[in-house]
Amino acid sequence: MSANATNEIPGLSASTIDKLYQYGEVKTFKEGTVIMNENSYIRAIPIVLSGSIRVMRIDDEKEILLYYIRPGESCIMSFLGGLHHEKSTLRAVAEEDVEILFIPISKVTELIKDNTEWLDYVFKLYHKRFEELLSVVNAVAFKKMDDRILNFLKEKQKNLGTQEINITHQQLAEELGTARVVVSRLLKQMEFDHIVKLGRNKIWLL
Length: 206
Fold this sequence. Notes:
This protein has helices at residues 5-8, 14-23, 76-83, 105-114, 116-142, 145-160, 169-176, 180-192, and strands spanning 25-29, 34-36, 44-50, 53-59, 62-69, 90-94, 98-104, 164-166, 196-199, 202-205. It is of the alpha+beta class. The strands form three sheets. Strands 2-6-4-5 form a four-stranded antiparallel β-sheet. 27% of the residues are buried.
């Protein structure tokens, strides 16, 4: 276990974290790496130690961002799919360079049966993801696209800790499930209103 492990997975005791490191394997991935693809079987549950992952749903060549997985967090959909031996319906991509602790499904099941602390961690994570998915549904159903773009950029800024966001209009359109021309038009208006500053494949929130 690393020296800072008790800070890497908030809510879990040092003894539980020790078990996770004994059971699991730590791997690192570069920014942009696809960590989990749709239609693949889930063999292990990822817990992010550093960096972040974005989780998306892909349908008819369109993408929609569901949530980010940050340090100390995992993907509840991986839990459910892995425990039921189902294929993934999501794609997980490294938002930045990321370090992940992978826990084999067999050990995840064992911990759920024997460790109430771990079970509480799973339930809290489920609640958090459920709230985030409700926000996505609310945004798609009720919010205007310019509000969705602004919220997306704010979330990205918070996640990366920088005002400069490296993203193309096409990538932004794909993550929001809309057309590039719509995104470009709305971003131009937002720049005119001094909400953002646009550069080549870059956007700054003002």
